[in-house]
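Q: I'm writing up a methods section and want to include an example of the input and output format. Could you take the sequence below and give the corresponding predicted structure tokens, formatted cleanly so I can copy it straight into the document?
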Amino acid sequence: MTPPVNERQDENAPVGIFKLSRKDLPALMKAADQLKQACFNVDLQNATNVPGFIKTLKRDLDFPDWFGGNLDALHDCLTDFSWHPASGYVITLSGYELLRGNPTSFAAFNSVMASAVEAWEARNIPFRVFYVQDDPAA
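A: Here is the clean output for your methods example:
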């Protein structure tokens, strides 16, 4: 794994936002399964703005029917997961290149994710978000 995206230097920290090489994804998923942590794979390939990433997360994280479809509701679901209890949570994000091309929406997305990370950290529950990166050509 590469160093975390945020200021953290300790890769064993229970929460955070990180970069992950695609080749390491199977090992991450296996480790999450062994630890009985929920692992969600989010494909942001078609998400180019705030409504797009909200819709994608609703689908890929299987949000409950009461999900409100806005940034506040997204934060509520990312910090609750009562519909999917687990000992911790791992979210992998792939195909985020188009979203990253919209700086305002990408910043809003990262802000919500960072806030969720802080909420889980306060509860000392593992919550990690990984931006999955394609491996550079050899």
